[in-house]
């Protein structure tokens, strides 16, 4: 059976909810289809100690400020999950879950959204499926895996599989990656004295100044977008400030001298890692904190082309399929659109463009 609606939003994380908020304001008929069984998107799956890099007041979706937490700490992931659950209830957003979208196809003047529970026919689609679901593991040119990855006898996991240091008690752990996830997970592991940590980064870690948090990052991303839109010189945006936000646990571990980075090793061996000069270190586990890619496989039938394997967009609208909007994946869908505070504006623009397309 096929159910008709104006708009299908794919994904019920923060980006999908922000889209829902603005579609409702435009009085459009829509559904949000979410593969998770419970609200909160990726925040339900992060490690236990993860805290936002901004205060609650700077982590809000449109309409409803995130309630502040007592105490000096920025909110934890659990607080975000509660906030998102409350948000979808408060605005009575029509989230259907668990529903996984398998494919989106063109179907005359409509788009056909095929799911594991049935088919939806829509005049427009917002894809807001995030990146958490597509972990990226590095390879080297000419190979499809990092050298020795299949030889290593220990445990290998990605950021998405890490939960808490106690899971590695008494072990020799290698954390790979000089971004926020790598620094935070490495710092988390330093809280256990019996963990022998190696933190491997491709270049020396670039910490942002200690007083820079998500607020400044949002401003930097917005200023960059404005400069590019106005034809001025690229300001460099967030990347120009550094790679690692010095959140309190990272700062503490760094200042205590516990967060020292080693150069990236060149291969895994059965017992551990090996650097270019032949030096080796034994390891029980390797945690690859090497990033994510947009989860877009459901859009494959549309044959959209663009830089770095994702669709070319104008704002959030796919250039090759104007009935499709992409929301939340990164700066290519709006400045800081992959953040809580940043997704509201592109969501509003997407809903506005969809309303126009539908003649409302
Ligand atoms: P998600 O939260 O991933 O939600 C997407 C939803 O779509 C999920 O429920 C998923 O199951 C569903 N889905 C996926 N594929 C399908 C499909 N085919 N069919 C149906 N449903 C599907 N941002 C901040 O603002 N502040 C921070 O401090 C911050 N810290 C971060 C720390 C880490 C470690 C990471 C990884 C990100 C952080 N971010 C932060 C960035 C961002 O806010 C989160 O990544 C956020 O989860 C992105 O929300 P989203 O809605 O785009 O995606």
Account of the 3D structure:
The mean pLDDT is 93. With 360 residues, the chain is of the alpha/beta class. The protein contains six helices and 17 strands. The longest helix has 16 residues, at 214-229. Helix 3 links the parallel strand 8 and strand 9. 41% of the residues are buried. The chain folds into two domains: 2-134 and 292-357, FAD/NAD(P)-binding domain (3-Layer(bba) Sandwich); 155-207 and 243-288, FAD/NAD(P)-binding domain, CATH 3.50.50.60. The protein has helices spanning 14-25, 77-90, 180-189, 214-229, 248-255, 344-357; strands at residues 2-10, 30-33, 95-96, 101-107, 110-115, 118-127, 155-158, 172-176, 196-201, 261-263, 267-268, 272-274, 280-282, 285-288, 313-314, 317-318, 321-326. The strands form three sheets. Strands 1, 2, 3, 4, 5, 6, 15, 16 and 17 form a nine-stranded mixed sheet that branches. A five-stranded parallel sheet has the order 7-14-8-9-10, with helices on one face. Bound molecules: flavin-adenine dinucleotide.
Overview in brief:
With 360 residues, this protein is of the alpha/beta class. It has 6 helices and 17 strands.
Give me the secondary-structure topology.
Layout: E1 2-10, H1 14-25, E2 30-33, H2 77-90, E3 95-96, E4 101-107, E5 110-115, E6 118-127, E7 155-158, E8 172-176, H3 180-189, E9 196-201, H4 214-229, H5 248-255, E10 261-263, E11 267-268, E12 272-274, E13 280-282, E14 285-288, E15 313-314, E16 317-318, E17 321-326, H6 344-357
Parallel strand pairs: 1-2, 1-6, 2-3, 6-17, 7-14, 8-9, 8-14, 9-10
Antiparallel strand pairs: 4-5, 5-6, 11-12, 12-13, 15-16, 16-17
Helix pairs in contact: 1-6, 3-5
Bound molecules: flavin-adenine dinucleotide.
Flavin-adenine dinucleotide binds next to helix 1.
């Amino acid at each position: 059976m096929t159910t008709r609606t104006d708009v299908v939003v794919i994904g019920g994380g923060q980006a999908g909810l922000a889209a829902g908020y603005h579609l409702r304001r435009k009085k459009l008929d829509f559904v949000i289809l979410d593969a998770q069984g419970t609200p909160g998107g990726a925040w339900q799956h992060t490690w236990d100690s993860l805290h936002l890099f901004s205060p609650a007041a700077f982590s809000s979706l449109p309409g409803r400020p995130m309630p502040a937490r007592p105490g000096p700490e920025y909110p934890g992931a659990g607080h975000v999950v509660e906030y998102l659950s409350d948000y979808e209830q408060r605005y009575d957003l029509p989230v259907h879950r668990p529903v996984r979208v398998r494919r989106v196809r063109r179907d005359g003047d409509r788009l056909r959204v095929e799911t594991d529970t049935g088919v939806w026919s829509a005049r427009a689609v917002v894809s807001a499926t995030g990146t958490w679901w597509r972990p990226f593991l590095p390879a080297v040119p000419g190979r499809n895996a990092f050298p020795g990855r299949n030889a290593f006898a220990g445990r290998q996991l990605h950021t998405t599989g890490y939960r808490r240091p106690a899971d590695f008690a008494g072990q020799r752990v290698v954390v790979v990656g000089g971004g926020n996830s790598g620094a935070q997970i490495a710092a988390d592991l330093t809280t256990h004295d019996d963990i022998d940590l190696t933190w491997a980064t491709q270049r020396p870690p670039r910490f942002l100044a200690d007083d820079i948090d998500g607020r400044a990052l949002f401003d930097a991303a917005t200023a960059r977008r404005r400069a590019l839109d106005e034809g001025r010189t690229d300001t460099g945006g967030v990347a120009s400030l550094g790679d690692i936000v010095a959140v309190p646990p990272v700062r503490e571990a760094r200042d205590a001298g516990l967060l020292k980075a080693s150069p990236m090793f060149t291969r895994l061996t059965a017992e551990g890692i090996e650097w270019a000069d032949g030096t080796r270190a034994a390891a029980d586990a390797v945690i690859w904190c090497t990033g994510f890619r947009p989860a877009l496989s459901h859009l494959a039938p549309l044959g959209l082309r663009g830089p770095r394997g994702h669709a070319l967009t104008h704002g959030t609208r796919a250039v090759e399929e104007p009935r499709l909007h992409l929301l939340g994946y990164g700066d290519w869908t709006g400045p800081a659109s992959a953040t809580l505070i940043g997704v509201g504006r592109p969501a509003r623009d997407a809903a506005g463009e969809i309303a126009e397309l539908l003649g409302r």
